[in-house]
Design brief:
The protein is 29% helix and 26% strand. The protein is α/β, with parallel strands linked by helices and 445 residues long. The longest helix is centred in the first third of the chain and has 14 residues, at 76-89. Keywords: Ion transport, NAD, Potassium, Potassium transport, Transport.
Length: 445
Amino acid sequence: MKIIIAGAGAVGTHLAKLLSGEKQDIILMDEDERKLDASGGNLDLMTVNASPTSISGLKEADAAGADLFIGVMPDESRNMTACMLAASMGAKKTVARIDNYEYLLPKHKEFFAKLGVHSLIYPEMLAARDIVDAVKMSWIRQWWEFAGGALVLIGTRMGEAAEILNVPLHELGGRNIPFHIVAVKRGADTIIPRGDDMIKLNDIVYFTTTKKYIPYIRKIAGKENEADVRNVMIMGGSRIAVRTCQYLPDYMRTKIIESDLNRCNRLTELVDDGVMVINGDGRDIGLLQEEGIRNTEAFVALTGNSETNILACLAAKRLGVVKTVAEVENVDYIGMAESLDIGTVINKKFIAASHIYQMMLDADVSNVKCLTVANADVAEFTVKAGSRITKAPVKDLGLPKGATIGGLIRNGEGVLVTGNTMIRENDHVVVFCLGMMIKKLEKYF
């Protein structure tokens, strides 16, 4: 598959790293030679030093032969223009990173497709949805729903009160337990557990289950005494903050702390009247206490500075906040943020990469999620007639090492999978896998 990535900034470079590991034919374009030198030196890809909005530059990159053209430059209009030009030259599919929510409205989809922009990615909106999923329940690190919530994935850290510590998994209740442990993050390692493995203190454990058993998961994880989220404080009035306020449930009371007075005035026009906008420094402990941090269950740090967000979450935890979320755009800091136990880490690059990665899969994949801190992915496949995965029980499928089936959705109902489960045509199968190995699983579906 020939893929052209237009823009060697943070998102484009990260995407190039992910895709180059898949042995795809990758071309990275940018008019800034220094960016190309910094990003392309250690990757198996070709670089083109030319403007992605230049016809001659696109010809040099052979846009006419591209299976996928991805515009991820900082400027939305340039991404749209580059995609239109590439499509007119013959690129089969184009994706543009945008900053304007209006473009995503269903009534505009056909209009953009006719222009040659086939898909749109708005990372800030995707990040906001992940933040809202993370703060809905204070005791959960990650929460994702599949097939409208028929099956859910929950990631939560094991404290001393957890009931499942130091017990071999095969002793946890036999085949009738209402959950499946798909992965365990232990220190810097992510483990796909086997029956003899045990859960240790401070592990982040990823469960798949159905919604009715979430209270049971909460009980065995020792989280029943953690307060539910009713009050949310957001530091930084970014576009992600605005979208987060729009997606938060009505029962949550929200405050945004923003240091720039002009931005505060703008925020009052962008968010609902129920959201309180405060002009001040979110790192000021006195201000946080004055604004009721001790009665706040969730603190979300969304400034443009990763270090500030990490430190602010640490301060909020010290002041008693149960749930903290930090936007960490510097990839090098993600491991540190996790080791400091700051809570949920959000990274727009990983989120955007998951959605774009989904577009290059041949199988029918309706959902791909990147677990930022676990170097792992979760994908929802729809099973085709006669596919390999329907030919034998799960235990005999010979799935690649590092992959496990977390569950499936059949006729709208969530079903937990055992080794004897037979997968059928039209089932929606949720697969958890380490690294970017989804492509290797396509042949099964």
